[in-house]
């Protein structure tokens, strides 16, 4: 007989809404506390195809389809000194492999309302002060009721932290969040009415354009609206900011410094405010523990180069809901559920982090990036036709979904083998990662000779947790965790 756990979720973004809707639909009692009142602005517009599959499973796909978002089928990269190269998911994997370019304020609102309609008790405008622990286990939260202003205490069997970069458990309670020094970046961006994409861009695809000291994004939103931004290391941003009287002047100057991006926006009209946000990458030492799960940005944040933030959020929400569902049915022990969650979520983050790290060596060439992606995907059926397919699968989120459902455990085992091989010999993949780290260090030293990369902040390609644990994601006939060892 299953147990109907009480679950408390902090944060109503894609991670919190995904987990909340799934658990409520599974019969759990779920309360979600969101600090903002939706819709609220949030950076990020480009969505991976994996999110489409999760939305379908959530029962929210038609709601998202009805919003009129730009249909996205991939990306065009003008990176380093090479010719443009295109990743078109519909050509690689079929016509249904597509997603959207969304306005996150609207997209997140749709997901939160779907969670509410699924049975989640959503409280907006609620400020969570702290997570309560007893004997090492999370048992509830203290929060401020938006109507009465009272500080309340709510207990639960599980606390799911989707508080984003605030990180109530990882950053504030345990203080176990580790920054990645090579990605201490800053983004500056704004919106244009009118503009165009580069020739040969896949339908609705993002354009990513490198420069000597950073990279640009050009994202086609609904209508004729474009999101355009520039990402650079914080030391470069701070120095360049001194040249301008406003962030708007700086944004226009950054756009003008790229002949490519300047040309794409030549017929566009800038719409108001320029925005700035730190894109400092980090990862928590642990993604879960007794009574709690860290989801999305509360657990880790990655440079937005490959547009994987919403994927990691929704994927972690799916995994957390599967873990609690499996526990409710007695399918796994608490330790097994934690191993399942930590393995799959951390492997997803490390794989993407490793790929992005390689990209920052801009002159390595696409063949080296494809080789890196192929080694990280490690599935004979993925890249047997063309070398770009593994890359396309990883940036679509498909590799993570495939690994999660791999009952044999071979996907996790093969990734572990890649890391082991890299430890034993310096492969072309490892050389690429080493070169990326060295290039970033040289850039930092040029901007600030006193800021040096220490050994403990270098790229770690052996950051995988218990890769061969035998657990896998089950979605039918109900959400849960399978045990390969017991099912064999």
TrEMBL record:
<dbReference type="InterPro" id="IPR050816">
    <property type="entry name" value="Flavin-dep_Halogenase_NPB"/>
</dbReference>
<comment type="similarity">
    <text>Belongs to the flavin-dependent halogenase family. Bacterial tryptophan halogenase subfamily.</text>
</comment>
<protein>
    <submittedName>
        <fullName>NAD(P)/FAD-dependent oxidoreductase</fullName>
    </submittedName>
</protein>
<dbReference type="Pfam" id="PF04820">
    <property type="entry name" value="Trp_halogenase"/>
</dbReference>
<dbReference type="InterPro" id="IPR036188">
    <property type="entry name" value="FAD/NAD-bd_sf"/>
</dbReference>
<dbReference type="InterPro" id="IPR006905">
    <property type="entry name" value="Flavin_halogenase"/>
</dbReference>
């Amino acid at each position: 007989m299953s147990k109907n756990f009480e679950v408390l979720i902090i944060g109503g973004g894609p991670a919190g809404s995904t987990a909340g809707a799934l658990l409520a639909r599974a019969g759990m009692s779920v309360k979600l506390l969101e600090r903002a009142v939706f819709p609220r602005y949030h950076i990020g517009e480009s969505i991976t195809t994996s999110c489409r599959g999760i939305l379908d499973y959530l029962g929210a796909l038609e709601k998202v389809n009805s919003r009129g978002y730009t249909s996205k089928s991939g990306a065009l990269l003008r990176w380093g000194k090479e010719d443009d190269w295109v990743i078109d998911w519909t050509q690689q994997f079929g016509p249904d492999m597509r997603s959207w370019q969304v306005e996150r304020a609207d997209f997140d609102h749709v997901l939160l309302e779907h969670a509410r309609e699924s049975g989640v008790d959503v409280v907006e405008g609620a400020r969570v002060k702290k997570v309560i622990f007893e004997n090492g286990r999370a048992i509830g939260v203290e929060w401020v009721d938006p109507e009465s202003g009272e500080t309340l205490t709510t207990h639960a069997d599980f606390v799911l932290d989707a508080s984003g970069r605030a990180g109530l458990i990882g950053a504030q309670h345990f203080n176990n969040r580790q920054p990645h020094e090579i990605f201490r970046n800053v983004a500056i961006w704004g919106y244009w009415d009118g503009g165009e994409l580069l020739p040969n861009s896949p339908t609705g695809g993002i354009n990513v354009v490198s420069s000597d000291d950073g990279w640009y994004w050009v994202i086609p939103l609904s209508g004729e609206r474009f999101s355009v931004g520039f990402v650079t290391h914080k030391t470069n941003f701070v120095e360049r900011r001194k040249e301008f009287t406003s962030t708007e002047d700086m944004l226009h100057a950054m756009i003008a410094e790229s002949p490519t991006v300047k040309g794409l926006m030549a017929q566009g009209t800038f719409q108001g405010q320029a925005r700035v946000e730190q894109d400092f990458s980090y990862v928590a030492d642990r993604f879960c523990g007794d009574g709690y799960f860290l989801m999305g940005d509360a657990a880790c944040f990655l440079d937005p180069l490959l547009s994987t933030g919403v994927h990691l959020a929704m994927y972690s929400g799916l995994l957390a809901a599967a873990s609690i569902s499996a526990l409710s049915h007695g399918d796994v022990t608490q330790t097994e559920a934690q191993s399942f969650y930590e393995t799959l979520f951390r492997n997803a983050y490390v794989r993407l982090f490793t790929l992005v790290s390689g990209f920052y060596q801009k002159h390595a060439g696409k063949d080296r990036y494809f080789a890196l992606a192929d080694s990280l995907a490690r599935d004979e059926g993925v890249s047997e036709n063309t070398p770009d397919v593994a890359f396309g699968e990883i940036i679509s989120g498909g590799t993570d979904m495939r690994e999660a459902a791999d009952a044999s455990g071979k996907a996790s085992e093969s990734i572990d083998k890649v890391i082991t091989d890299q430890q034993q010999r310096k492969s072309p993949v490892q050389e690429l990662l080493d070169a990326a780290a060295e290039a970033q260090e040289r850039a930092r030293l040029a901007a600030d000779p006193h800021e040096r990369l220490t050994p403990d902040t270098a790229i770690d390609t052996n950051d995988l947790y218990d890769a061969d644990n035998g657990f896998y994601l089950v979605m039918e006939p109900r959400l849960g965790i399978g045990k390969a060892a017991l099912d064999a």
